[in-house]
Amino acid sequence: MKLAFFGDVVGKPGRQAVVDHLPEVRSALALDFVVVNAENAAGGFGLTETIANEVFHAGADCLTLGDHAWDQREALTYIARESRLLRPINYPAAAEAPGQGANLFVLPDGRRVGVIQAQGIVFMKQLLDNPFSAVDAALENMPLGMVADAVIVDMHCEATSEKMAMGHFCDGRASMVVGSHTHVPTADHMILAGGTGYQSDAGMCGDYDSVIGMQKDNSIRRFHTQLPGKRYEPALGEGTLSGLFVETDDATGLAVRCEPIRVGGRLSEVMPGV
Ligand SMILES: [Fe+2]
Ligand SMILES: [Fe+2]
Q1: Paired strand residues for 152
Q2: Residue positions annotated with a catalytic role
Q3: Among 35, 110, 155, 237, which is least packed, fewest CB within 10 Å?
Q4: CA-to-CA distance for 273 and 38, rounded, in angstroms?
Q5: How far is CA 271 from CA 5, 65, 198, 261, in A?
Q6: What is the pLDDT of residue 118?
Q7: In Å, what is the CA distance from 236 to each residue of 41, 109, 267?
Q8: Tens digit of pLDDT for each residue in 34-66?
Q9: Which ligand is nearest to the CA of 10?
Q10: pLDDT tens across 107-149, in order?
């Protein structure tokens, strides 16, 4: 199966990069399933239904969120009726968190793709439950090669150590484990020892002439002066579509290829060969 995950869509330039490039990338790579992290798609803060539909229409099969999940309050009700939208699985009061943190998608040809999102607890502003325990339980519910033909884990967190530990924790049980939240693509894409495709961060879909997608002058000033600045606004230059491509062996659900995708904007272009 051919899978792709694209990192945090930041504001209009991020959405434009998805709209401009995802349809072509999807068809060029013959992608079977696409996950996009959309926690910053609405002006950098959260997600609305209208914007979610724009990203679905461009070729996403599933959207994930993160620490910005509820920045737009309508997401609290929207997620309850949209099973293609996932939030972190490890909220402490699970019964009170709207929506779900994992889902099993059935493709038109009958193959099944499981998606799980977890949020880390190192350096994060919300303290959720242990993501490892939550992902462990979710993986038990969709064993690779039995219940699911492919499993994608979005590990949304700050620390590369926590992301890498999650990669190894899922190794052999997931087709791909990919980090989101830090908005910068890492160069450690690889197939782990047990066959899981891995990258510490998929990078954002957004304008890289920025500080993680936001206007750089305001961000520099806040760091420099340690004084309150203006509200963060997305940088408005041309965005890059940034993510990870994983091809699996249908017999095992494990990765046989794991390569980055970067199209448009300021980052140098990388496309898996076909
Ligand atoms: Fe983000
Ligand atoms: Fe985040």
Answers
A1: 115, 176
A2: 68
A3: 110
A4: 27
A5: 14, 25, 17, 5
A6: 98
A7: 13, 40, 15
A8: 999 999 999 999 999 999 999 999 999 999 999
A9: 1
A10: 999 999 999 999 999 999 999 999 999 999 999 999 999 999 9
Centre of ligand 2 from the C-alpha of residue 89, in Å: 14
Ligand nearest 157 Cα, by number? 2
- pLDDT tens track for 162-218: 999 999 999 999 999 999 999 999 999 999 999 999 999 999 999 999 999 999 999
Helix (H, G, I), strand (E, B) or coil at 161: helix
Q: Which amino acid is at 28?
A: A
Burial pattern 154-167, b for ≥16 Cβ within 10 A else e, equals bbbbbbeebbbbbb
Contact 256, 148 (CB under 8 A): no
How does residue 229 score in pLDDT terms, banded at 50, 70 and 90? confident
| Separation of CA 2 and ligand 2 centre (Å) | 26
Identity of the amino acid at 32: D
Query: How many A from CA of 251 to the centre of ligand 2?
Result: 34
Q: Identify the CA nearest to 37 among candidates 55, 19, 21, 25.
A: 55
User: How many Å lie between the centroid of ligand 1 and the Cα of residue 25?
Assistant: 22
Name the one residue in this structure whose structure tokens are 């309050």. Answer: 73
Ligand 2 geometric centre to CA of 68 (Å): 6
